[in-house]
Structures are given as C-alpha cells and as structure tokens.
Design a protein that fits this description.
56% helix, five-stranded parallel sheet, 176 residues, alpha/beta, Rossmann fold
Length: 176
C-alpha cells in the first residue's frame, strides 16, 4: 500500500499524529528528522552548526530517495522537505502527501510546549510568532503545491485528524 506522507511546518504536530496514525494502521512510522539524527549520530542543531543547512538538506534528500521504494509507512517529514522538489517527487512515487495546516498561533503554542530545538527559529530579535509566520509565508506555496490533501489540525483531536487522514487516503486509493 502507498505510504502516508505528512508535510507541514515544524511544530504543527506531524510526528505526534504520525506515530498515532501508524499505530492505528499497524504500519511502520518514520520521522525523517529522527532518522537523520540516528544516522548522523548528532542532533539536527549540531548538524546545522557543524556542517550547515546545505549538508542537512543533502542528507535529507538522500533519505527521501531511499525511502521512496518502501511501502506501508507513515512518514513524518521535516518542515523544509518542500525546499527540494526532488524530495516531493521521490515521496510521491509511493505515497500520498498530506499537508497539516493550522494557525500560526497553533504552531507557536506547540513549539513553546516542546523542548525540541528548531535551528531555523533560533536567534534574532523577532518573536517566535514572527519567525514562524515568516518561515511559513516563505514556504506556503511550496506546501500547497506539494500536497495531495490539506488537513486543518486546529481545534481537532488526534483521533479526528487521523480519521480524516484515513478517509482521504481511502478516497485517493479508490481513484488511483
């Protein structure tokens, strides 16, 4: 069966919902950022500091190429996955791409309650809200162009979101 690929802003809840969804379906869950950390043996923040963002994006692209042949997976991607169209092309080979969208405040609230460091949201004088909004506006069209289905996550339980994803997945599978 084709994979369920979740894209969207860092902090929208892709990993949490993806794990829940994979468990519900009895599929394998893969968080691409976690897999990169596992393989590189250092955090994403350390990768950015030591090698730079370009290196991280190359590692990320190699992983997308590798996982494009796998199936029965729920794949949670990093927020910048859409910056390279080859990534989306690879993920689409054997997957439907679901864009998780929400209000900027939803993302900020999630990031504030998380202890995960997002290198692209660190430093500077702008507020977290301003940083998230700027990053989102810069990627919004890429997210929209890359997705097969848009799922709004605002004010929905994890169960509601996963039920919606499964319904849309089944609809896409029927028309393919």
């Amino acid at each position: 069966m084709k994979n369920i690929v979740i894209i969207g802003m860092s902090g929208i809840g892709k990993s949490e919902k993806g794990k829940y969804l994979a468990n519900l379906l009895g599929w394998t869950f893969l968080d691409t950022d976690e897999e990169i950390v596992r393989r590189e043996k250092i955090t994403i923040e350390e990768i950015f500091i030591k090698y730079g963002e370009d290196y991280f994006r190359d590692v990320e692209s190699n992983l997308m190429s590798e996982i494009s042949t796998m199936s029965n997976m729920v794949i949670s991607t990093g927020g910048g996955i859409v910056l390279n169209s080859d990534n989306i092309e690879n993920l689409r080979k054997n997957g439907y791409i679901f864009l998780f969208m929400g209000k900027i405040q939803t993302i900020v609230d999630n990031l504030t309650s998380s202890n995960v460091v997002r290198p692209l949201l660190k430093g500077g004088t702008a507020t977290l809200y301003e940083k998230v909004e700027k990053l989102f506006r810069g990627r919004e069209q890429l997210y929209l162009a890359s997705s097969d289905v848009i799922i709004n996550v605002d004010n929905k339980s994890i169960e509601q979101i996963c039920k919606e994803v499964i319904g849309e997945y089944n609809r896409l599978a029927e028309i393919s």
